[in-house]
Structures are given as C-alpha cells and as structure tokens.
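Sequence in, structure out. First:
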Amino acid sequence: MLILAVESSCDETAVALVRDGREVLTDCISSQVELHRIYGGVVPEIASRKHIECIYALADQALARAGVTRQEIDAVAVTYAPGLIGAVLVGVNFAKAAALRLGVPLIPVHHIRGHIAANYLAFPELEPPFLCLVVSGGHTMILAVEDYTRMRILGGTRDDAAGECFDKVARVLGMPYPGGAALDRTARQGVEGRYDLPRAKLSGNPLDMSFSGLKTAALNLIHHAGQVGEALNIPDLCADFSRAVSDTLVPRTMQALRDTGYKKLAIAGGVAANSRIRADFAAAAAEAGAALYIPPLSLCGDNAAMIGAQGYYEYLAGNTAGQDLNAFATKTLEGEAV
C-alpha cells in the first residue's frame, strides 16, 4: 500500500511516500529554521503562510523523486493534531483536497503516534508491545504501546515539556534557534558537577515528571550571574542542565519498563536526538538487558515519513476520515480534545 503522507504541525513542511508502513520511498522536507531564527522561536502566523507557499510544490517534488505517479497513490495520511492550529490546518486542507481528487482514503494521524512510528522505519523488526518515551518540544510522556493503534499513557510531565526547557534555557543563553541542538553541542564541551540543579520529586504517580522548577532554577542562575557581573561557564552549565533532564527521564522510564515487564524500549521525538539522553538510555537499557530503539537523527524531528508509517496501521485498523476532518491544536492520544 502506497501512502502519500503530509506533516505541517509546526515549522517543517514535509511530504513523504511510504509503502506498507515500513519503506520510505522519499521524504521531502522544507525547513523554516532560518526564517524563524531571527525571532528566536517559531512565529505561528509566519509558519502557516510558509506552509501554504511550499506544500503543493513539495508534493510534486516527492512524487518526482520517487518516480511515482498520482494514480499509484492508495491513500493520503496527514497530521491532524496536535500542533500550531494554523499550520496543522494547511496540511489537513491539502490532504483532504488530494484525497478527494485522487479518490482514495484519507487517514488522520495523531502527531505523537507518528513520532512513535518513526521507530518502525528505522527498525523493521520492531513490533508492539513495547515501552516508548516520547520526548519533544511540546510533549513528554511514557507510553505502553500495546498495539499499533492502542497506546496507554503511564506517566508524563505535569508542566513543561523537556524540549521546551532545553529551548528556553538555550535562548536565554543567547544560543541560536533551534536552541536544544545548540545547547547539546555546547554541553559536549563541558564538565559536569559545577552547577547544582534540582530534580523534582512528585507525589502521586511515580512516573510523572516536572521540569518547570529545573527551568526556573537555570534561568535564575543565568539572570543572577548577569546582574552581579559573575562569569558563567556556559559549557559546564549546559552539561549539568542536560544531566538534570536525563536524570529525570531515565529512572522513570526504566521503572515503567520494569513495571510493564516489557523487554523493548523505544525513544521518540526531537529530544531523542540529544547526545546525553541517548548515551544514558543506552547504558540503562544494557544494564537492564532490554533492547533499545532510538531512531537516527533524521527521524527524531518532525517528518512526513513517520506519518505515513503510522497512517498505514491506522488504515488497517479502520481509522479513516471524511471531508469533514478538522485540525486540532490539542488532542489526546485517545482522540479527545484537551
């Protein structure tokens, strides 16, 4: 089954062609990083307009690169939630028009489910059930992936997402957008142990996390140093901050792995590209005797191939939509608007 997949939930316009949920014929991405860099973050209105400008040409480019005709497309899959509402609407409207014109099924895909499915592209042998940590700029959650379309949230952040904290601290430090990647590069040059940053412990669900206190502590430290004229060792601060985030993610994820009895652990989302987090999970999984699946860097960020991969399994489960499909800024994995 050949699926034309569309992703436009934030600042990356992407169109891919994916066969049977596992084979990527092509994945074309138009990045807006340079456009938003001068603002230090994504400007929603600009992102939406840029999606409109390039999505049609990007689809033609994807078909040309794959050597595929429109008549060979069996279905159209699209991210319909969550994301910047204007940006998501562009992709949804394009996908609805394409599916209508081609006379093929329209498949709505939840963005988080797409990130999980990136692992299917990187590791063809991976099949549910397994545990997955989704960690990105907008989401941090531990999931039991019981089947391709049945997932259960075991724990997550009660406030800020880990990726949002990386980006905010990097921005205050004057690093270029996207800040998380710049902070990671700087952290590799630092030595841990100079700055004592907090790790939150919450009552209730032991798998839940909080990053707002860590973010605030780091920002206060930076602002205080500026006010009193104290020099900061930026690489060391970045190293300690990265360690604090990892110290929050890894123990809870490994606890969830023990609780479920699963022997397979997957990591997904943009923060899965962080070198410290990847290394810490590699060590923890090896110690636990668990198989670890982390996508290559090209599949950690937003892309359409992951939407095509998940779209295939949504189609097999009968999850298709009509021309009344709408876009949503927030929506749970179970399909309820937040």
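Second:
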Amino acid sequence: MKNKTTALILSVLVGTLGVDRFYLGYMGMGVLKLLTGGCFGILWIIDIVNIATGKLQPADGTPYEDIKIVSAESQSAKNPYDDLEKLAQLHKTGALTDEEFAKAKAECLSKM
C-alpha cells in the first residue's frame, strides 16, 4: 500500500522528474514527466493538487495507507479492564507496592 503523505512529498520535491508517478505505479506518465520536466511544470502542479485531494490514487487500485496515531492515554481509555489486569500483574510480580497499586487501581476505576 502506498502512503499519501509520501506521494505528496515526492510530488512537491521531485515531481518534475516524475518520481511521484513512478512511486504510484504510473510508469508511462513517470517517463513523460521525466523527459519533459513535469510537462513544463503544468502536470507537476496538477499532480500536487490531485494527490492532495485524493483524486490521484495508486495505479494498482488500492487505497492509500491510513496512518493512525494512537496515544497511550486514548488507548488505555478504550479498555480499562486490560489496564487493571496489567496493574494486577505488576503488583503480583512486585513491580508495584501496595500503595502504588491501590492508587493506580483507583484511577482506572474512576475512568470507567
């Protein structure tokens, strides 16, 4: 799967050489842009806009790869039961004292 951000960065930086089209799998258009300097700059600008708006997709028909950044806080908010289980394991192994375990357990329970 291709990444939309990568395609856009390639298009902006080296799009006049057709690198963006080669990356997306359009070999013929890549060669055309390489030989004509991005069709004298016109196709270069059009490709930047089309990639940014999502109109220019990878040639194999797959959608762009979605990058999802999940913070630790939002991930723990999704399943507090897993957090309680992890805390119990840490307490059992001795990594957490009784006081630390009680405090962390209270925080997890308050999020429920």
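Remark: Helices lie at 4-14, 19-24, 27-40, 42-53, 72-78, 80-93, 98-111.
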